[in-house]
Amino acid sequence: GDSVTQMEGPVTLSEEAFLTINCTYTATGYPSLFWYVQYPGEGLQLLLKATKADDKGSNKGFEATYRKETTSFHLEKGSVQVSDSAVYFCGGGADGLTFGKGTHLIIQP
Amino acid sequence: KAGVTQTPRYLIKTRGQQVTLSCSPISGHRSVSWYQQTPGQGLQFLFEYFSETQRNKGNFPGRFSGRQFSNSRSEMNVSTLELGDSALYLCASSLSGASVSNYGYTFGSGTRLTVV
Questions:
Q1: Which residues of B touch A98 (CB under 8 A)?
Q2: Burial class, A109, CB count within 10 angstroms (exposed 0-12 / middle 13-18 / buried 19+)
């Protein structure tokens, strides 16, 4: 079946540092890929998505490019803020999503 | 535009009981999927419904079931509750279409189920 592998963390960075969270996806075919963010006590919010190879999703300074050759969808941000502290989930699929285990990101002032 | 609404927000049940959770999708969304979130297993897909039909199912025992009504609202039922069923249950809705996942899913805030 489909599977998603992402670094679990926690990942601790200082404010204004560069962020990369790795994600690789294994599936039959090339499904749409997503990054979701979960703030404490809340449900998941869609952060960005890519529907086909070489697509770049971007939102709120975050970017991820769908790399078909490596089946990767790494999340990046040039300068993180304390407010970015949350759990980030990489996922993909159709008719139901397969998620990674989530990466807990902690940004220190 | 109202978001995905899940009720109740919190629930405490005793082992062996059964429970029903409710999810109202965003107006116009015809796909509803359910997920179980636990600290150990992360987010796991339970099942997905589209136009009252179960279209996809994850690897959960038959104690977990669901249904979708003609207005797209969905319910999830867990029978003979076990301690390990304690989790946050998330519902997500999406627009209809051949490639449903291209639109992304909008999640509700979840129902926190505690089994004692």
A1: 45
A2: exposed
- Which structure tokens are listed for A101? 């285990």
DSSP state of A67: B
Put simply, whether A51 touches B (Cβ < 8 Å) is: yes
Q: Three-state SS for A10? A: coil
User: Among all residues of chain A, which has the CA nearest to that of B96?
Assistant: A95
Do residue B107 and residue A96 have CB atoms under 8 angstroms apart? no
The answer to whether the beta carbons of residues B64 and B46 sit under 8 Å apart is yes
CA dihedral A30, A96, B91, B96 (to 10 degrees): 80
CB contact under 8 A, A94 and B100: yes
CB atoms within 10 A of CB B28: 10
Q: Tell me whether residue A78 is exposed, middle or buried, using C-beta atoms within 10 angstroms of its C-beta: 0 to 12, 13 to 18, 19 or more.
A: exposed
Secondary structure letter of residue B26 according to DSSP: P
Amino acid at B20: T
Residue matched to tokens 């449900």: A43
Q: Rounded distance, CA B114 to CA B109, Å?
A: 16
B56-80 tens-digit pLDDT: 899 999 999 999 999 999 999 999 9
Those residues whose C-beta lies under 8 Å from the C-beta of residue B97, and which sit 6 or more positions away, are B103
Are the C-beta atoms of residues A36 and A92 closer than 8 Å to each other? no
Q: Give pLDDT tens digits for B77-100.
A: 999 999 999 999 999 998 864 445
- Mean pLDDT over the full length of chain B: 91
Residue A92 contacts B, CB cutoff 8 Å: yes
